[in-house]
Amino acid sequence: MMDYLDLSDLSDERLEAVLALATRLEARPYGDALKGRTVGLLFMNPSVRTLASMQAAVTQQGGQTFVVTPGSGSWKMETRDGAVMDGEAAEHVREAIPVLAQYADLLGVRCFAEGKDLGTDLADGLIRTMADLCPKPFMNLESARAHPCQALADWKTLDDLTIPRKGGRFVLSWAWHPKALPYAVPASALEMAVRRGMDVTVLRPEGFALPAEVMDRARTIAARTGAHLRETSDRVEGMDGAHAVYVKSWAAPQFYGRPAEEAVLRAPLRDEWCVRESWFDVAERDAKFLHCLPVRRNVKVADEVLDGPRSAVIREAGNRMHVQKALLIELLGGHRR
Ligand code: CP
Questions:
Q1: How many C-alpha atoms does 336 have within 13 Å on its Cβ side?
Q2: Which atom of ligand 1 is the closest one to the Cα of 53?
Q3: Is residue 86 part of a domain?
Q4: pLDDT single digits (tens) 6-15
């Protein structure tokens, strides 16, 4: 395997191997498996965890990184095919990717959904085009439809918390957010949970069902792994017996690319869809709260949950570094000495 664009790029055997290596690296973080290696990081969009955890992962294994952030100290970059570049962008990814690849042994790229056309964003063509332009190993650091490093960290977090794969009850819940957000994180979290073979519920208000493409893909994986998958807008039904509740906001598919119209549907949901401790009344007593971060306190989730014992968000973010370190070693063919 040369590229990691999606969780499905890892076979079951490789996924288990990466998770096991990540656990060993958590116990012994420092080594020289990436000695002499350079990892290039192209961030078309902002980040705290992904950027810092990639840099730390490489450095702790003896390698180096360089970071390019278009529009912030670097040329603004165009991504559209056939664009007439008479605007702000001075450089096209068609040159930038192969140029940067010459300086690095692996490129990691973040490039979010454009948020205009649902079909285009769900097809995730841009990240695949960029991977094709890169003659070196390539990592998706969050694209229009996938956040596979987050998914791998979430998988490890559920394992760390001893939440069962078969029979574990996983709730992916929508929460209110002031903006219509893309599907990368919820799609990858859903894929991760069904791939684990869990009993999965998507809890969301009417009008905010995940796109059919995302649900169909999850159903296909569930058919292979034996996972159960259902959807509901009834919070008590959805939270009943939950072991883990993964919270994220996403756009209403029918208004994708039309935020003003979507805001009308979204506005009345604000108070009801902020996660509070009372949500967990019908969940398992030790049910955990997961969120990829960043999170808006007392908008998406109340302080009482984030600051309480069920919150796993700090561990989740820590696991980003461990799993990415393992992935980098896997992709670059390194080994721990
Ligand atoms: N979870 C995550 O990807 O965080 P950042 O956006 O800060 O990288």
A1: 20
A2: 8
A3: yes
A4: 999 999 999 9
